[in-house]
Amino acid sequence: MSKARRMLKKKQQKKERQAVRQNLGAGESAFEKLFEEGKYEETLQALAKLIGAGDRNPELFYQGAYSYYMLGDNDRAAEWVNNTLTFAPAHVQARVLLARICFAENRAADGFKIFEFLLSSEKAALGEEDFDAIRQSMAYYLRHDRETVKKYPSLCAFLGLEEGEAAEKAAQPQEGASDALAKLQALKNRLQGINASREQADAAEPVKTDADPATERTDSTDAGTQDGPAVSVIIPVYRAEKYLRGCLDSVVNQTLADYEVILIDDAGEDGSLAIEEEYAKRENWRLYCMAENAGPGLARNAGLRHARGKYIAFVDADDLLEPDFLAVLVNAAEQERADVVCAGYRQWEEDRDGRRSGEKTVTLAPERAELPGAPEKRLQMLLNGRESDATKLPDPVPWGRIIRRDFLASHAIAFPSLPRFEDTIFNLPLLLEAGKIVLLPDVLYGHRLQPDSITHQSNEQHAVYLQSILQGFDWLEDYAATHPLVAGNEGLKTALGVYLMNHMTIGLLCRYPLEQAKPIVDHFARQNFKDHAPFVSLLLLRYLSELREN
């Protein structure tokens, strides 16, 4: 081959290499965009094309490993971590990810060793996201296995345990982290401040009012006692000005005579309080004001502390009652000697302009029916949703029913201090422990849904949701350890965990990026499935991924 031909061939090969590099560069840009958007399955498809084109960028390998991890495929994630470290042995993010995989696979000892090595030898190379990942991984072990953490001096020093700090403080993510979970602990002090104000309702004096002549009522009952009325209607109010009068008028118009109304103003900043003060002038209506906003669950607890009725009825401030709601439910409770009586309801969505959509009617039973008494049977109904094709289990909400007050007191059932999902936690012991629960065929309650899109909420609101989920699982852990119905019964505890995961979490987490959902899923799986946790995490993450695509 002549010299001229050799030169021509070299130029041609150089052009081809430049074209490949340009194509790879464009491919890497598209790959990065998919990865940043959390489209992990598409990220892996793009990675396969890049590798087929000869790209050996170790950062791409790491992002492929992370994508497999977020999709719950820990085996492939570990393989790609290996590939990353083969081409870039000093890649500390890959080692952090490997430790997280170890924890997800119940190989905690290996995970601890990796973190210990990184913090003792490679700390200068770690960034804030790496530190946040370590804190998140350690949060579970700080709550449940702190003694093991203390065996690793560098890890212990990083978390502040050597200075005797509380585990929760040690697990606190740094302010400004992009992951909403990294902000959960930062909310703790604020939540504790809210908790401190909740007890103030105990000492709060009712707003002084002059009683107006009571509206004439009929259908009196003998359910009340000399010490109190038949029913205490508890209405927490927070920024409900638009719908409050309609709700309160539907209570005024009840045919039952023997009831009291307890309004709990939860420190909203609209015109609700003026409306409450107006209605509180009525006979047997009382108004209490929370010092600052504590949420509907804790506001209802404040109402419970002031209630005198034989039965309790919780009503949301934007809902509506049929005129005979109280009369029908109290009569059924007296006839059946029931702890809980539930009625059917109408439900609709209503936007800010008052337009209704999605209206439906929910009937619990074709005729008066009683739930089975065995907790295991009721739990099965919780998981299935129905006892039969005709009988529907009541939703885990406080409204649309009456509950015997001394049953709540004797079983110490109250709303937990959660900013979200307090209804679900309240209803689990209620449904499992009540002696007799009666379902009525009557549709007597109207529930208004106001859309509250997760996608339009702030990072702080996202963090509140996620904090509530974690606290909900912690509540289950305590309930399972102390309550005779569940203590020692791993099957019952696991079933309760599945119910919480499904009702409280699945519908919510599918709307979050998988990197925010995965720690919740892993936490749930470790608590409830132990040796099978990795497999359960994989299934749930696959399910969440499918829900997001749909």
What this model shows, in words?
The chain has 550 residues and is α/β, with parallel strands linked by helices. The chain folds into three domains: 21-191, Alpha Horseshoe (Serine Threonine Protein Phosphatase 5, Tetratricopeptide repeat), CATH 1.25.40.10; 204-449, Spore Coat Polysaccharide Biosynthesis Protein SpsA, Chain A (Alpha-Beta Complex), CATH 3.90.550.10; 454-549, no CATH class. The chain has 23 helices and ten strands. It has helices at 3-36, 40-52, 58-70, 74-87, 92-104, 108-121, 128-144, 146-149, 153-159, 167-170, 188-198, 200-203, 241-252, 272-279, 296-306, 325-336, 375-384, 405-410, 422-433, 459-482, 490-509, 514-529, 533-549; strands at 231-237, 259-265, 285-289, 311-314, 320-321, 340-350, 356-362, 369-370, 401-404, 437-449. Strands 1, 2, 3, 4, 5, 6, 7, 8, 9 and 10 form a ten-stranded mixed beta sheet that branches. Strand 1 (231-237), helix 13 (241-252) and strand 2 form a beta-alpha-beta unit. Helix 1 (3-36) packs antiparallel against helix 2 (40-52), helix 3 packs antiparallel against helix 4 (74-87) and helix 20 (459-482) packs antiparallel against helix 21 (490-509). The longest helix has 34 residues, at 3-36. The radius of gyration is 29 Å and the shape is elongated. The protein starts with a helix and ends with a helix. Residues 16-21, 163-206 and 208-221 have low confidence and may be disordered.
